[in-house]
Task: structure prediction
Amino acid sequence: EAGVTQFPSHSVIEKGQTVTLRCDPISGHDNLYWYRRVMGKEIKFLLHFVKESKQDESGMPNNRFLAERTGGTYSTLKVQPAELEDSGVYFCASSQVYQGFSGYTFGSGTRLTVV
Amino acid sequence: AQKITQTQPGMFVQEKEAVTLDCTYDTSDPSYGLFWYKQPSSGEMIFLIYQGSYDQQNATEGRYSLNFQKARKSANLVISASQLGDSAMYFCAMREGEAGGFKTIFGAGTRLFVKA
Result:
């Protein structure tokens, strides 16, 4: 089966511009997560979708970040307007199980650089 | 409060030797899971091993084993017979139960260098 796919793999944008990251989870995985790793620090949770609903968005840093998962398939994460501190690697992960303890399947990440 | 602590930013190991990557965690939830992920230079995050808080035995997966010491709240990863391909970033993670919203949190990672 295809894994979790993220697009683009790299993005360099100027401060104030808009960027949209996309994640295609494994088919049939209802749970989709966004994480990011900034400046070599720990990987931090952003939000969790169950199908098309936001189950937990407590990790979203501010209202410049907007995540959607229309139709419960792929998800997008939009940053508008981008700031320098948004630079980092954005990971998407998916899983079948929510309340259990299965490992996630991660994508390769999108490296975002804001200049 | 930091819930996952990886105190080794970088580690070196000789090829074919064993190496232990440290991880301590903090939770008041009696039900939780502990995970290790590997991130090679290609960037993807690879799930390695899982240990449940109620598991009596340490988890093992091939050359990976998790040294689970519940009272000390540590979940160290042991890699036996290191290979050059083991050079990567390793992340310890914890997923709490219902009390923690089933959220997975990660440590800052340890970069492992395997020397030939």
